[in-house]
Amino acid sequence: MTTQRQLIYDYLRHKKKFPNIWCAGCGIGIVMGAIIRAVDDLGYDKNQVAMISGIGCSGRMPVYLDFYTMHTTHGRALSFATGLKLARPELKIIVVMGDGDALAIGGNHFIHTARRNIDLTAIVINNATYGMTGGQYSPTTPQHMLATTAPYGNIEQDFPICELAQVCGAAFVARSTVYHVEELQGYIEQGLEKKGFALIEAVSYCHTTYGRLNRLGSAVDMMRALKENSVTRQTAEKLPPEELQGKIVRGIFVDREVPEYTQLYQKIIERAQSGGKA
Ligand SMILES: Cc1ncc(C[n+]2csc(CCOP(=O)(O)OP(=O)(O)O)c2C)c(N)n1
Ligand code: SF4
């Protein structure tokens, strides 16, 4: 097995792009580590991999990684990734988004990318807030919790990311947290190997804005809460609804075979090139 030190040299733009911008204790780096190990364990050549993001703390990840990368506009990572996949279908494409990026400004793109079932591995780092812009509430801020734009509590219901991807037609959908890092890495590996749209939600609550405003303690306290407040799907199925209140349910929600967009599109190209006879 490759050592952690070797992985850092192999995959990070360590000479040019560090120190990074993330707060000490933030889980985004843990997700980045899980992605690096997933790619390495699967034995991909890093020139086979492209990483695309929008804007936000999570969106900074491609800046630090030595894959082909695109750091694009807020909410549009999936659109850029769709274009790249159609042009270079052989690439493994990882899309990293914050919850605001994926589900607020990018919500429409999220729905339709899942519906098309295009072969991308999308990772939504759910920190329950707009981290980069100072802690406004986002579509995943739990109801009644505080945000800079919800000083008396957020009155909106939060968006269930995995359930949304599931009903839209994604081929693979899973959720884990930055505490359960090996499980998270496993889901990323499964997503990368899946032909079709794979959505992995990585829960990583922001301690600097969301945590501080809601008095959730230090980064370590919040990491411990991820351990204590999460249950596997199997356990969740046995619990009464009142005991599931406020719990993060981890696991694989979907793993199915669905016709994949670039393959269907290739058939259309062949048909058009043969004058509609193929
Ligand atoms: C079109 C556009 N609108 C708004 C912004 C300002 N902006 C930058 S990051 C961000 C939200 C960040 O939240 P999220 O996507 O959840 O990522 P996080 O920083 O929490 O990882 C916003 C609104 C922008 N850069 N571009
Ligand atoms: S503001 Fe929050 S999400 Fe952004 S780097 Fe800091 S801890 Fe992480």
**Structural class, please?**
alpha/beta
What proportion of the residues form beta strands (DSSP E)? Answer: 15-25%
Shape: globular
What is the overall pLDDT average?
A: 96
Biggest sheet statistics: 8 strands, mixed
Number of DSSP-assigned strands: 8
- Cross-sheet strand order for the largest sheet: 2-1-3-4-6-5-8-7
Ligand inventory: thiamine diphosphate, iron/sulfur cluster
| Helix content range | 40-55%
Separate helix tally: 13
User: Helix and strand succession?
Assistant: HHEHEHEHHEHEHEHHEHHEH
Catalogue the unreliable spans.
none
Rounded to the nearest angstrom, the distance between the terminal CA atoms is 48 Å
Cα-atom radius of gyration: 19 Å
Oligomer: single chain
Q: How would you describe what is shown here?
A:
- The chain has helices at residues 4-11, 28-41, 61-64, 77-87, 99-103, 107-116, 161-168, 181-193, 207-213, 219-228, 233-238, 241-244, 261-273; strands at 49-53, 68-71, 92-98, 121-126, 172-177, 198-203, 230-232, 248-255.
- It has 278 residues and is an alpha/beta fold.
- It has an eight-stranded mixed sheet, sandwiched between helices.
- Strand 5 (172-177), helix 8 (181-193) and strand 6 form a beta-alpha-beta unit.
- It is globular.
- The mean pLDDT is 96.
- Thiamine diphosphate is lined by residues 55-58, 74, 98-101, 127, 129-133, 138.
Question: What are the defining features of this structure?
Answer:
single chain, 278 residues, alpha/beta, 8 strands, binds iron/sulfur cluster
